[in-house]
């Protein structure tokens, strides 16, 4: 009996988590068939990698090709146009996603519900109607989000044809779903005491909700939306691999032609755009949460007009609002033609034909005999579909485990409060090589910044050329990108929670690593876990499309079905991927809830 | 004298445990009473019964002459326009300006669009009114500051300003000075009780600090384990009674 | 609901539509990207000018990013005419009722694929399919929908070894997702893959241009002949461009002898074609499960 309880104690939930992670890692390696051979780049691949990295320092400033037709536009015009198109689609898509996200976010939350009398029949009915609405809205949002934007684009382009509207909707749908889900969570988790006070003062529920909860949640909403805008730019860029002329398209074409330096030009441009938006988002967030004092403080004897004049205003925030509105307006108005150039009847006919072809083949052939559905489904799911699903899951899982480990090792060096001579503010004495720590920290942060700014799809595409067509380039691409994200988020967790215990450890001569492992990590373990869980499902979502680059997984099955024009198969595999992500989402939510409930001192809302 | 709040044999339980039982309490118009008792004795619950946030399971609760159990939602809202509730954490919106938080006091009277208009396109008259309120509370220069940049004590005054802006009949305050040092607590209570007296607003407050309660309130109601143990003037309350009240809990 | 969103909302931009019944203004052409995409637009310039001059209408070229996109855009009506491979042509004509193959290269009815290998494998050309020699090497097809780079090689491998390609090779089989036959040739020459199969015309022209060294990537087997490549058009073009348009178009293409124009197809001349010419391709595709 004592033995058992000793085991139970040892297997505390933290150790359990680590154990589970280890098991998943090993299983994943087995399933994906890890061979040391696979990690060796081929001869051609090494050469390519060398040339490619070399080209990084000499990005093309003009066309690399020699003989070009006279109608070719100047190089920078081509780059500029592509950048503008990428940005335009991202901005327009986000404007749609924001509106949709706010509406559905409210519908999907509990915070706006009026106080209901459960005992009265009408109250009871209303309660259940509201509950149903909430579940349906959340489910739809999660489903929209479970399909990757590349897959939405594939579906739209196939069903209706090429058009800017298709590109924009492909981004707007999943992003709207994510925004709705995050918004509704933020609203639900918001401190409702202000709303309670308003309601107790006689305000209607709608007013109490809007002012008491909505306004309070607004800064987090905006911060998250700006983060999503940055992601949208990346998504817009990789739509280029679907033939839409955004930055990704030119990167793919440049690769095909062997113009490696041109690839870097496009990459740098993309990175610049992404980093600018990221910094802007950080700036806005800082202003929203820590407002600067006004230049001139109001005095007691000032009149209202005087005080109004002296009131604290943020130039950054005002300029941001104006810029954002202008960008959205420009984005919408400068598109010459949103719909494809086909006439309406043609588009309708195309769409209907697509719908017809989505019905499984044997069902269709036998006059809509749905009894054929079962065998058709079974044939596709077993074994090919399940193998692909299984592989996709493990690609995403191993990637996030690697990324998590890497980030945990890097954060002690990368976090601002730990890098530099004085860790956590405790004076550290003279360094042998001054500035080495700070420099190393900075380099780590820059590397993390670059890694998370390059879209995973592009990283995977390039790595595949170097290492050959196995899963490991995909895993590596996912791990690098997400590692960058986790390093940044982890550093923020550390920076924002000045740890007394950590300081004590350092003051008593502990190293940064020991202070991190000994105090910061345990204290913030739950927050780190939350971050890792959040990225886990995103990794799996990415893994479903990375396979389209040619490695056996759901993505490759989707691509294969598309190539053969077997749209019923294609939709089936897309749905399988969506269900996988959906399940991951549900599990992640449950785990996060458990962590939050059981967490001590890990307070504060997550704003991801 | 008109009775503002009348509880008759009120009681409520949560999860099978009686939070309040057999409470008879009568608060007259303009009266100031303080509810004291150890943690968990039901102070917050009692305040909750008074403005309908919680509904009594036994007996009745009448506020301003209306039985809370009989009211429709609309009537309840109208009734609540005359009541203010100030929770322990003040319930302010941190990212609004002080002016806007105070303006929210009229949320009940204005309706949704009216409130929006008031917050976004504040009229000069409204701003003047708020300013003079803040002046009375000693922080007029903070009119346009963001509420979360104010200190704790200043935020409490904002909450009081909002309460007063509502022009209520009664204020229900739940431990408004709990997280404040005694010196500041004293000045705040002085302010609040003074203003309430001047305006003739009924004041029902729960306090943990017994000395302050005795100092500022003419009438004390002692709660213990959900029952009213005594209901008498502060002068009559002996130290012994207070000791016994807090015997089962910490002071 | 989505149909309404797409089809119904706003009919802006009715001008410049291909085939809106009011007399379309441009004939839109595309081609499968069987070599590099970026060259295509330049290569097709002369053809466009020629056709515009001969037919008296506007002609445009539109790039398709891969084989499937070319077929889909043809099926959607975004392009009127396309230079397809054998398989893609069959797919396209299957989806669009009335679509016709009207022309092909003069030597295309006797098309072949070359199996090539990197010189390091030490293999040379043989008459027999070198099953034993290559089954443990790394292998790549061309594009997944390529007739000469995928369909027919798969067919011949099955015929000669009794197994599907994926089972025959012990290592995982690759595809060239972009760059088509040129990418296959370059991959084999560089050694990143040991054996590949591609379009014989691409190989020959790359050797002629000096882009490929036959010493580094020799041919190890040549497949039997089959029909490949065609120009396919929508059957209803007469409605938009006038009666007899398709016949005129065919005549103009077949009679062309300007090498600049024919550079688009990398052919010396074009001859008439018909849908039946590709019946074998269709049969093979269905047999291999690439078509239904």
Written description of the protein model:
Chain A is 74% helix and 0% strand. Chain A is mainly alpha-helical. Chain A has two domains: 58-63 and 75-293 and 314-336, MetI-like fold, CATH 1.10.3720.10; 369-598, MetI-like (MetI-like fold, Orthogonal Bundle). Residues 600-608 of chain A have low confidence and may be disordered. Chain B has two domains: 1-82 and 168-251, 3-Layer(aba) Sandwich (Rossmann fold); 91-167, no CATH class. Chain B is built from nine helices and ten strands. Chain B has helices spanning 43-50, 73-80, 98-103, 107-120, 124-137, 152-165, 182-199, 210-216, 239-245; strands at 3-14, 17-28, 32-36, 58-63, 66-67, 83-86, 170-174, 202-207, 219-224, 227-233. Chain B has a six-stranded mixed beta sheet, sandwiched between helices. Chain B has a four-stranded antiparallel beta sheet with strand order 2-1-4-5, with helices on one face. In chain B, helix 5 crosses helix 6 and helix 6 (152-165) packs parallel to helix 7. With 292 residues, chain C is an alpha/beta fold. Chain C has two domains: 26-108 and 227-287, 3-Layer(aba) Sandwich (D-Maltodextrin-Binding Protein, domain 2); 112-222, Periplasmic binding protein-like II (D-Maltodextrin-Binding Protein, domain 2). In chain C, helix 4 (67-76) runs parallel beside helix 5 (86-95) and helix 5 (86-95) packs across helix 14. The longest helix of chain C has 15 residues, at 147-161. The radius of gyration of chain C is 20 Å and the shape is globular. Chains in contact: A-B, A-C. Chains A and C meet through helix 3, helix 6, helix 10, helix 14 and helix 22 of A and helix 1, helix 2, helix 4 and helix 9 of C.
Chart the SSEs and their pairings.
The complex is a heterotrimer of chains A (608), B (251) and C (292).
Chain A: H1 2-10, H2 13-32, H3 43-55, H4 75-107, H5 121-146, H6 149-159, H7 164-189, H8 193-200, H9 205-238, H10 247-256, H11 260-289, H12 304-309, H13 315-333, H14 344-358, H15 361-365, H16 373-414, H17 436-453, H18 456-467, H19 472-496, H20 500-507, H21 512-546, H22 554-563, H23 567-598
Helix pairs in contact in A: 2-16, 4-7, 4-9, 4-13, 5-7, 5-23, 6-7, 7-9, 8-9, 9-11, 10-11, 16-19, 16-21, 16-22, 16-23, 17-19, 18-19, 19-21, 20-21, 21-23, 22-23
Chain B: E1 3-14, E2 17-28, E3 32-36, H1 43-50, E4 58-63, E5 66-67, H2 73-80, E6 83-86, H3 98-103, H4 107-120, H5 124-137, H6 152-165, E7 170-174, H7 182-199, E8 202-207, H8 210-216, E9 219-224, E10 227-233, H9 239-245
Parallel strand pairs in B: 3-8, 3-9, 6-7, 7-8
Antiparallel strand pairs in B: 1-2, 1-4, 4-5, 9-10
Helix pairs in contact in B: 5-6, 6-7
Chain C: H1 2-8, E1 26-31, H2 37-43, H3 45-55, E2 58-61, H4 67-76, E3 81-84, H5 86-95, E4 100-105, E5 113-117, H6 131-134, E6 139-140, H7 147-161, H8 165-168, H9 180-190, E7 195-199, H10 200-209, E8 219-222, E9 230-233, H11 237-241, H12 245-254, H13 259-262, E10 270-272, H14 279-287
Parallel strand pairs in C: 1-2, 1-3, 6-7
Antiparallel strand pairs in C: 3-9, 4-9, 4-10, 5-7, 5-8
Helix pairs in contact in C: 4-5, 5-14
